[in-house]
Design a protein that fits this description.
Rossmann fold, 2 domains, 8-stranded mixed beta sheet, 13 strands, alpha/beta, elongated, about 400 residues, 5-stranded parallel beta sheet, 15 helices
């Protein structure tokens, strides 16, 4: 690379629309740019490209004469906004390089280069071109979802809630799903997305986290939904300070209409303060007596520790029409809880498993599933309730 650039946090290439000019670039589809929507074409495709028609252009300079390349650069510069451009090649005339670097977002990569260098250049250009997150100017809503026991389905329900809110909003980047299971969170895997966040890198420097930094660490999932999830790191909880987590949530609440938290059930230094800034806390339980007892006790613990009078809502997951077997009914479950359950989610193992394997919410792959209907009912009811006008969680 010819330009000296500061390192940019990685950006997911999944679904990224890349127009590659030069037949030799076709090998990138199964190589370093696997997962991107790579279209191989020529100058004709470039001339027909509409503004916003792709996320990045890569040109193999060795595949075209200088005059053709000059015409290509002129066509790119005429686009408003012009997509980022990466020019690669073994023979790069000085005049061509100067014209490339005059573009708003462009870079040069001289051959030979490694796959890592190519991916880094692509991610850097994509990070530069992403629209900046800005304060919403309104009151955000923050919901926390946590499981009473492991395997209760909290992550699945969290994803479906976030997706339903994003669809209902109809706005770009209105919902941020934050996976606070920092060591081994599963949201990214369930969504088929690439995690980018590594909070441990911040150490105790929470003041470095702002809207620009947040933008670099979110992975767009769909039009209205962004994911903030960490790479797998067994030591993440030990390496992340309380202030960094709370500052991250504070900035997220400033930039999104909805912030949905997937919260680990084991308490951390920041857990209660994060929950105190939420409008809703949902405790997910499966229909076994041990899980129901744990859900009741866990909810009581949260309520007592917060001391605000806010009572978590218990959601019973994997309800089924019982014809055979010992699974408790809703009435029997509420007896074990010693309180009313706030909602129930139907069991549909096939839909949940298929969506997890395909990557994406159940509503995307099995829109007629009973799970989708039950989640939508829950979201509609909670979203229509008045927001708790508590301040977002803040770092000290």
């Amino acid at each position: 690379m010819l330009r000296n650039k500061s390192a940019s946090p990685p950006v997911s290439l999944k679904g990224c629309r890349i127009l590659a000019l030069g037949a030799a670039l076709g090998a990138l589809r199964e190589g370093p740019l696997a997962g991107a929507a790579l279209e191989i074409g020529g100058i004709v495709q470039l001339e027909q490209l509409a503004p916003g028609g792709c996320d990045l252009i890569i040109i193999d300079a060795d595949s075209f004469e200088t005059g053709v390349l000059a015409a290509a650069l002129k066509a790119i510069s005429a686009l408003r906004p012009a997509p980022p451009l990466l020019m690669v090649g073994d023979t790069l005339p000085a005049g061509l390089v100067r014209n490339v670097l005059r573009l708003e977002a462009a870079d040069i990569l001289e051959a030979p280069f490694t796959s890592e260098q190519l991916v880094a250049a692509v991610q850097s250009l994509l990070a530069e071109s992403q629209p900046a997150l800005a304060p919403t100017g309104g009151d955000s809503r923050c919901w926390a979802i946590t499981g009473a026991v492991g395997g209760a389905g909290a992550t699945t329900i969290t994803i479906e809630i976030a997706h339903a809110l994003a669809v209902a909003s109809g706005k770009d980047r209105s919902v941020c799903l934050v996976d606070l299971n920092l060591a081994d969170g599963a949201c990214a895997a369930y969504l088929g997305a690439s995690p980018t966040l590594k909070l441990a890198d911040f150490g105790t420097a929470a003041d470095r986290i702002d809207s620009a930094m947040l933008q670099a660490f979110v992975t767009p999932v769909s039009k209205g939904l962004d994911l903030m999830a960490g790479v797998r790191d067994a030591n993440a909880f030990d390496g992340v300070g309380r202030d960094a987590v709370l500052r991250l949530l504070e900035v997220a609440c400033e930039c999104y209409d909805w912030v949905i938290l997937d919260v680990p059930r084991h308490r951390r230094a920041w857990t209660l303060e994060a929950l105190a800034g939420c409008d809703e806390i949902l405790v997910i339980s499966e229909l076994t007596v041990p899980a129901l007892l744990a859900a009741g006790a866990y909810s009581d613990e949260i309520e007592a520790a917060l001391g605000t009078g806010m009572r978590p809502r218990i959601v019973l997951n994997r309800l089924a029409s019982r014809m055979f077997g010992p699974a408790p009914s809703m009435v029997e479950a509420e007896k074990a809880l010693q309180r009313k359950a706030d909602a129930g989610i139907s069991s549909d193992w096939e839909a949940a498993a298929a969506s997890a394997n395909l990557g994406g919410p159940i509503a995307q792959h099995r829109p007629k599933s009973k799970i989708v209907k039950d989640i939508q009912t829950l979201v509609d009811r909670l979203a229509s309730a008045p927001a708790r006008r508590e301040p977002a969680p803040k770092a000290a």
